[in-house]
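Morning!

This is the sequence you dropped in the shared folder:
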Amino acid sequence: MKHYDITIIGAGPAGSTLARTLGEKYRVLLVDKRPLDKEPSKLIKNCGGLIAPDAQKALATFGLSIPKDVLVSPQMFSVESIDFDNDMVRTYQRHYINVNRECYDRWLYSLCEKSCEQLFSTRYRNVNKVDGKYQLTLLKNGEHIEVSTDIIVGADGANSKIKKELIGKEEHEPKRYISIQEWFPNRTNVNQFVAIFDKEISDFYSWIIPEDDGIIFGSAVEEGKSAQKYHDLQKEKLKEYGYDLTNPTKKEGCHLLRPLSSKDICFGEGSVALIGEASGLVSPTSAEGISYAMLSGDALGRAILEDKENFLELYERNAKYLKKNIDSKMRKYPIMYNQTIRKMVFKLGLGAIEVNGK
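The structure's back. Tokens below.
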């Protein structure tokens, strides 16, 4: 049985950033169910592929720039906000970098591939703790692989099996949503990010993102409601704003977490660490998670490099600012999600810009 110092379950922005930060000091295993060593993959992250300002800042702090083969068009400089609750529309200046999410993940992985071992097209099955070490069972091409590790890291997203099996349900848990995304031809020349607020659909929001010759329509519906029913209803209601969301070419779905305070964040327990969305780190206002994923992966990596035996305490200290960031975004929450306050902000035109004289 092979032994590793650190085993990372999930090779998205969180897991790949952790592996890159750790470098070659430790024996690291990076596991992902996707065939990231081949392309293309049918297991694509349900993500619109926008690199928001927070994620751009994270890349800047790492001294990284996105290669051109990861980018898709158009690059967007505004967001149109459609408020069904108040029957109002406003446009705001924002800069998003538009990427192919699968290519983005492959690029981040390429930055760490020489410093760690990888098992791709591999699923995590279960784990047992024996003599202070974790023994993992992984499944690749129908065959079981047994490995042991000192530290196990859950970078496996909103439905983290590592968290469920090794930490369990916390007193505070992020609110859960079902996110559905569909791809359509861009028949109406959409060239900006569109955010849709409609309390009939969800207490969160829906979105439209142009990508190359198509558009992505997605919605986040509270768990427990019929996600497909309300997703379809939102598409129908968007017809009055001129959006043609018929005959999708592709469809995906996943769970989405939404922390409503920093108390919903869990960084781990004992020799188990959680990073990215597995820890609950997602923007409560926009659902942006890439910046938190990369920054938490880096924070954990620096903690392990400083003191592998007492890494969790150091990780929590390193990542404390991320919890504060969640709380700061909650102060913005009423402006975006309170119907009365949003109506006042829209009516006053605070921060809004005119597009084509409107």
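Headline: The first strand starts at residue 2 and ends at 9.

More detail when I'm at my desk.
O.
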